[in-house]
Amino acid sequence: MGISHQGIAASDGLFIGPVRRLGSAQxxxxxxxxxxxxxxxxxxxxxxxxxxxxxxxxxxxGEAQDILGFQVAMLxxxxxxxxxxxxxxQGTAAHVAWAAALDGEIAGYExxxxxxxxxxxxxxxDIRDRVLRQLAGEHAAGTVTGAVLxxxxxxxxxxxxxxxxxxGAIALLQGSTTSHVAMxxxxxxxxxxxxxxxxxxxxxxxxxxxxxxxxxxxxxAAQRAQFDAxxxxxxxxxxxxxxxxxxxxxxxxxxxxxxxINVAGxxxxxxxxxxxxxxxxxxxxxxxxxxxxxxxxxxxQYRAYRRFAEWAQGRPVTIRTLDIGGDKPVRxxxxxxxxxxxxxxxxxxLTLAHESVFRTQLRALARAAEHGNLKVMLPMxxxxxxxxxxxxxxxxxxxxxxxxxxxxxxxxxxIMVEVPAVAVMPELFRxxxxxxxxxxxxxxxxxxxSRDDARVAxxxxxxxxxxxxxxxxxxxxxxxxxxxVSLCGDMASEPRHLAALLETGLTSLSVAPARxxxxxxxxxxx
Length: 526
Ligand code: PEP
Ligand code: MG
Fold this sequence. Notes:
By secondary structure, the chain is an alpha/beta fold.
């Protein structure tokens, strides 16, 4: 009989499939028991890792190239593999010897007083895992389909690199329901459970109930039949909501609610029919910037933003400028070793500190604004001066583009309301063309409970009266001042929060695309 494990619900849905451990290339390999072949396997894996890094280096520039160059130099240094090779000669399997040797190095770097060396520990972890993947036959998370990914936590990039076309689910021992991965999972409709604490290491099949936050390991025939019945009835409920998909979102009294969607990448557009929503309320542009990959240039960004604008066919498309930092680091841009990244150099603070990166993005946005109803939104605004400085940069970019003879348009510049300083005194931010409430960050900052820490998940509750009161305050100010207000945090994607949200006077919500039909059905009941 399978055992049920209770965690925290992070993304609805049911899925059953084989377990795929994250970050455990090491566990997927068996040693051969022969020192000579283990030595050869490690040397070959290192050589392959160098070749793959060298190929990657050809496609990147600037700092990304330096990072990869450092990794290649480390791998080419015989001293790095020496302790592993001598452990292999003593009878240790190649993957165990390599992991132990690198873990020792990493611990040394992490203990350094020097920021530079501490920062290099991340490169060493990358090198360790790259070689381990080669030893295991190059299985990255991204190559698996139709599995339940199990691990302590999962990085947003690992989620994006995974092929979800055959379904799948995520079961995390730690993690959090408000992390960016949870948000991506909800957008994609991938069932996810966090905060499971522990799972036996030998399980092979996992049945995931994302809505209840529970998983069942290695179900027996009776449990399997029960799960299959639940899958059936879930499918029936989803089918009955479908009748609402292409209707305008409206309450029972006929009051219309604007229902827009949150997206992270152009590839998502292929799966969404634009006629089912009122536009894009939040495009998280930072997901075009992958950690370890080169920064996308103006042309690449322009093409992506233009794609969103054209997809929406005249409906509004709000593109948020880079919100990196916090739990979305990009090497070379985010500072290493911040003691509290969510309170550090994040969002507009970071882009204002990296003016050339910001300018590239603003130029691309102004050019894309020629092709649709595009709006630009600043994340993590805390003081009005951040709007003034960003607007000045946008104007400068537009003047520059015009001087170059490039077609462009000045998009309206709005802000996220996600820092309590703004929600408490929205009247200081009249310079914003619109407000979009980020309930994910607002909740984490109001309740002083991290959005990615399972241990404080119960405190990180958007229905806390203090959060709702701030939302109501912003909605009221917006109505009085004639500034449009929407809410794009994940709270809006939860039918259980709908009544309270609409009670605040909000009439515009931006939600996970996978929730459109369900939310329209729930709004019709209100
Ligand atoms: C939010 O904070 O609510 C939000 C929508 O932004 P993100 O989740 O990307 O931080
Ligand atoms: Mg936010």
